[in-house]
Amino acid sequence: TKTDTKNPAKPMQAKKQYSDHLLPVYRRKRTIALFTLILIVSAAMLLPPKGYTVPFLTFRLILFMLLYYRVPGIVACVALVAYGVFAWAIFQLVPITLTLAGIAAFILSVGMAVDANILIFERIREELRNGSTPQASIQGGYDKALSTIVDANVTTLIAAVVLFSFGTGPVKGFAVVLLIGILTSMFTAIMGTRAVINLLYGG
Q1: Residue 62 phi/psi, 5° resolution?
Q2: What is the mean pLDDT of residues 3-23?
Q3: Judging by beta carbons within 10 Å of its beta carbon (0-12, 13-18, 19+), is residue 180 exposed, middle or buried?
Q4: Average pLDDT of 125-140?
Q5: Preceding peptide of 72 cis, ω within 30°
Q6: 153-182 pLDDT, tens per residue?
Q7: 3-state secondary structure of 167
Q8: pLDDT band at residue 2 using 50, 70 and 90 as cut-offs
Q9: Angle at the Cα of 132 from the Cα atoms of 112 and 111, rounded to 5 degrees
């Protein structure tokens, strides 16, 4: 046009403004793509190798407890190993053949044992932050966490009894393993860890 002929810089300015407008969009898309790639790579690194799911997840669980809780984490890991030994001994005495449903129930009970330890340790930390002595914090932590742990485990036990009463085949196996696992985990997670922590910190 005549205006463009008189002022040739205008088309260049319009092109520059268009490019400047698109640049943030390009940068945002590139950032999203990079973030997505990082997530995919991270997820692939966190996935367990094929055939080693249970050992891999157990190792990660123990590592978390050790790094986050230090000495209480070591006690929790020892209690977890003791739980596994006791539960396996009971399975051999009953005897129980572990099917896929039974393994699922066993893993569920392990998770509940770890959950109980986390509840207790967080309560102890809360008491320590409030200025209590270590022994008073241990006492208060266990007392305050006990009701929550018992409520959760009793609810699961009722569900297991219902499954055993009305289920058949693998469902009954799941219920039996869950019952044994919950009762054993409550003993090791509450009484076992408390005895060792009291031994370490006095009282």
Answers
A1: -65, -40
A2: 49
A3: buried
A4: 85
A5: no
A6: 898 899 999 988 888 888 888 888 889 888
A7: coil
A8: very low
A9: 5
Query: How far is residue 180 from each of residues 70, 112, 134, 169, 170, measured CA to CA in Å?
Result: 29, 13, 33, 17, 15
Tokens of 120: 């207790």
Rounded to 10 deg, the angle between the 71-93 and 100-129 helix axes is 150
CA-based diameter of the chain, in Å? 99
The total number of residues shown for the chain amounts to: 203
Please answer whether residues 76 and 117 qualify as being in contact, where contact means their C-beta atoms are separated by less than 8 angstroms: yes
**What's residue 158's pLDDT?**
92
Structure tokens at 161: 């009894």
How many Å apart are CA 105 and CA 91, to the nearest integer?
13
The conformation of residue 49, written as its DSSP 8-state character, comes to: P
Report the C-alpha gap between 15 and 105 in whole angstroms.
Answer: 65
Q: Tokens standing for 40?
A: 């995919």
122 vs 180: CA distance, rounded Å: 26
For residue 7, give the 3-state DSSP assignment.
coil
The pTM for the full model equals 0.67
Q: How far apart are the C-alpha atoms of 87 and 96, rounded to whole Å?
A: 11
Dump pLDDT digits (tens) for 29-56: 455 555 555 555 554 555 555 555 666 6
Q: Are residues 73 and 124 in contact, defined by beta-carbon separation less than 8 angstroms?
A: no
